[in-house]
Structure formats: structure tokens, C-alpha cells
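Hi U.,

Before I forget, here's the chain from the pilot set. I'm dumping it here mostly so it's searchable later in email.
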Amino acid sequence: MLRFGILFLLMAPVFAQWAPFEMIWNVDGRTDADVSFLLDAPAGKSGFVQANNGHLYTTDGKRLRLWGVNFSFTASFPPKELAPKVAAHLARFGVNCVRIHHHDWRSPRGLIDAAYPDSRHLNADNLDRLDFLIAEFKKRGIYTDINLNVAREFREADGVKDSAQLGYGKALTYFDPKLIELQMEFARAYLTHRNPYTGNEYRNEPAIALVEIVNENSLIESWVRGRLRGLGFPPDLRDKTWVDIPASYARDLTRMFGGPRLEPKDFGAASPEQFRKEAEFYMGLESAFFRKFGAFLKDDLKVRQPVVGTSAHAGSLSPYPLLKSASQLDVVDGHTYWQHPRYIDDPATKQRSFEITNTPQVDVPAKSSVGVLARVAVDGKPFIVSEVNEPYPNEYGAELVPILAAYGALQDWDGLFWYSFAHDSADTWKPHPPGHFDIRQDPVKMSQLATGALIFHRSDFAAAEKTLLRDYTREQVADSLRMKSDEQPWFTPGMDSALALMHGMRVRSFDAKAPFQPALSAPKVIKSDTNELIWREGLITGASKRAAMIVGRLDQGKLTAGNMDVESETRFGAVMLVALDENSSLLTAGARTSNEGMQWNAQRTSTPAVGTAPIMIEPLKAIVTLRGHRPDAVVTITALDGAGKAMGAPKRAKKSGASWRVTLDQPTPWYRVTVR
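Structure:
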């Protein structure tokens, strides 16, 4: 290691440990990192997206993979003069679908017109801005995923009982006739609305890829979490997302069930028959809702897009009861967050703070986001992940995009959507301390968005050669809800979660005759059955014809992935080298990010001082050695700025035998490598 240390002393120029790096979105023309060639414009040019044989396709039979982001709140309503630039910015990073999310709020934050006392009118100005944005997306090959019910607050003027105690109506939207009627009314008004900039009603717009009925909403989850007791919530509660239902609705459920209902504290003492009976009651309500709403969309409104019921979103809860109901529709969806912040309200100051565990998932392959998501995929249904993130300021966030891009390709998933791109309108996209979820300002995740797009769109890492199918009995599905937490995330005794890093994973049946009994386990060094991806504790390497990556604990001497070696001084990060064409590649080298002046607590689990703009990066310091080029090749590397354009003149790699060595010596997370 002495030689390695001396080598870095000789590296020049020397730069500071951290450096400011602003992602520049309002850019004219192409850049050196532009991957918009991956998109097939205009979106939907051959017709509507099809859900066939377990995957998404365009009408002309081409496989469609959605590499997407979420737009929340006012992000979906930018000024018209900025909408073309927003669409162009996303296209440059390979984004070909935007999930329009959290837009069913009252104006100005959403589509519900606050000029009316009810929630039944659409705001004309925001709808017009959304129309224009979707039209601009379409021009550039970017599809749209429309959400129908996320956070709508039903009101007394809607004719809804106990409206002040509904919160977002989670669980209630499945069984209350009035709430179902209002959801259908909103869907009709929204989906039959004609976009004047495309000339199509949304139900007849081929650039709309998917329609989602409800978001992160489950009666089953509400029952298991103790939110069907009828206790309501205090009027000063800050977050009304996950709240107990009002007493009047609890009485409705009891009447529908036909007797007293179990609370979570009763689960342990309940007989299998009693527990299963009530679990299947809630499953039946969910199933009936999806059948009814799906038929309404397809048969009544004549919606031509594939429909998503809801997402399996709770990693610490068995997904199978909800999946059994939701998988009746066209597409199955999953959400996960690696170490989602735990929010804390200080009772004295009333200030909100947060805590995260702040550890990397590369250290625990069996608990990775891949396993949590792979448990949700259902055989014969397209599978998307419409929300995923490793929220800021986790110091290991550089691992996420490479892991999901590579293993999403291995699992042959149909869509990955990062949550979120932005929560605010483009006219406010200026440097400021980022929130936990928006990736727009994150230099590491944004640069990786481009390399990840190349991998996922083209399946640069091949799909698994073998798919393991799981069959659950009706009893297993219900009983999984009260399994001990140590059965997470699969809730299948004996199931080795790390198998999802080796083979494809799908659920085949929820009504099997015999219980599923896992017969395989993963070795300590987990190699995909394609031999392209290897996950050792603390380190992932991947190599294929067009891509190489090394992710995790990098300070282990020389590390190799295919024709790329990396010798890193930086302790943790991700290096990805992905071909753009025959003569050039995009290289991302990401480590930590931070706000200027941000301070961690002693445990590095929270940031009492969030700091200020600009956002800072820890430049990844490494020697990268490349092989596999013709003997007379000239290899150059160009550092890129926040717009994806050259920061200076290209630097020539040093040739030694059959290899070329480049030094990552600039304060940037990405480079372009060219071979002449």
C-alpha cells in the first residue's frame, strides 16, 4: 500500500477534499453527456403502451423500459416558457417517463380548484400548464404516468361525512360508496379532458403510458398498523397521511364484517380461522374495489392505457394480501426507500427534525432494496418501481442508482422511477439546500441518472437466465401478515433474500394447493447467473460488453470489473463506465454530497445544521486503468461540468502495454472517455 500512497502524492492537480458543484438544467443544445438518443420521439408514435406476456411493449412490438422520475406538487405546473427546457433537460439524462404525483392538492399546489368549497373542480390555470408540459414531454419521447388519487382532501361540501377527520382518506377510499363515487368522478373529468396542445383526451393519448388508481393505499396495511380502530386524530396533527379512521367509518366496517373486529393487540391470541376470516374480509374489499374501478376505467371511460392499482410500499409488512388484489390489474408496482428518514417533532421548539441509520446497503445484500422489490414482482405481469430512493443526506447514496439500474436489468423489470425529481416549479429551480428526496440538485445521483439510463434502457446487464417462481397457499397469504419481523422482507420461512441477486424472482400463485418451500440459498459471494454481477459484502462489481461498474467500499487496493481497474483513495463510492457509442463512454465517479456548512450530530444520524447552498461533492480520487482497445488507440478523458459540457481540454491517457491509465483529478462526478 506504500506504492499506492506514493502514487497519489504524485497525482496532479491537487484539489480540495470537497468542492462546490451545481447541476445546470437550463441548457441549450446537446452536451457531452447527452443520452437523449435512447428516447424514441415522439412518445407513443406507434400507438398505446401494451402490457403483454409479463412486460411493457410499444404497439409495434418493441420492448419498453421506463426510466423515470416523479414530479410532485407544483413541479407539474411550470411556466409555459420553461416547459420545453424542463423536457429537454430530462431527455438529456435518458428519462423517458414522468410520474405526475401529489398533484391532487388544492391550488396553487395542485389541480383541485381552491376557489370552490368542494374538491370537485379542476383548476384551469394549473391544468393548462400541465397540458403544455405533457405535450412538451411527448415531443421528446417522454411518456407520462398519471396518478388519480394520492393526497386529495375530501371536504364537507363534497357530501362526505366527518370530512375533517379523513386526512387523505387512506383505506376509506376502498369501501365508502361516496368516496368511490367521488374518485370515479375525478377520473372521468381528468381522463376525458382534452389536451389542446396534443389534441387528445387523456384516455386517448398514446403518450400517457400508465394510469394509477391510488397511491400507497391499503386496507390490509391499515388493519395491521392499527388504523381501522375509529379513534381519529387530534386536530393539530402535522402529518395526516397515516391516521386512524373516524369512528363512523369504523362502525361501517364492523357492520359490513358482521361482528367485532380484531385490533393488532388481539392478533397473537386470535385463532388461525378468526385471523384469516378478517384478513380475507379486507382483501375482499380491496379486490372488489380494483375490479370495479378497473372495469370503470376500461369499460366505461374506455381508457386505453395499462392500469396500475396501487403499490406494495411497506417493506416491513407482507405484500402478498395486497398483491393478490392489485395484480388483477395490468401492471404491478412496488416502492422502497433505503433508510427512509424518521421524522421527529421537538415538543419544546415545535421544530421538525429527522434521523437516519446512515449505513450502506452494500454491506447487507440480503436486506438490500433489490430483495425488497423483487418479492413484489408477479409472474405474467409487467413490474415497475414507481418510487425508490436512498434519501439525502445518507452518506452512501452513491450506491443506489448503480445497484437499481444493474439489478433492475437482471430482474428484467419494466420501469424504475426515482422519487423525486422535484417538488417545486421550474421557475424556482435555484441552488438551495435539497430536501430528502429531490435528486434535481444532487450531482452524484443526477450524473448517474445518465449512466443508469444507458444500462437500463439497453439492458447492458443481461436479464437472469433462471427465474424462481413462488407459490403461496391462500392460508399462507393471510398468515404472512402476523409473522415475526425477522421474516422480512420475504415473509416466507427459509427464503434467502440474496437469491434476488442471482436469479429472477416472481410470485406465480396466491392460491396454490401446497405451501411454497424454498430450496436454495445464496453463497457469501453472490454471483448473478449471467456471471456479469458479483456482490461481495461491502462491494459490487459488474462487467458486460458495454458496461463496467465498481460500487461500495473502494479503498481496497486494485479492484477489477471487466476491462476496468480502479485504485481509489476515496473510501466509498461508485465508478461506472458505460458505452455511449463505439468510440466513447460516459464515466461517473460519485462519492458523498453535502451542503456548504452542513453539520452532522456525533452519531452521524442527523444534521442539526443543514447548511446552505451550494451543494458540495467529495471528489472521487482514483486511478482508472482501461483495457480492450486496439493497440494504436489514443484514449482521452474530459472532465464535465454541471451542464455536462467540457470543463477544459481533454487529457490523454498514459499507455502502458495493452492498457491505458487515466487519473480522476477534477472536482466533478463525471467524465467523457473517448477512444480514437
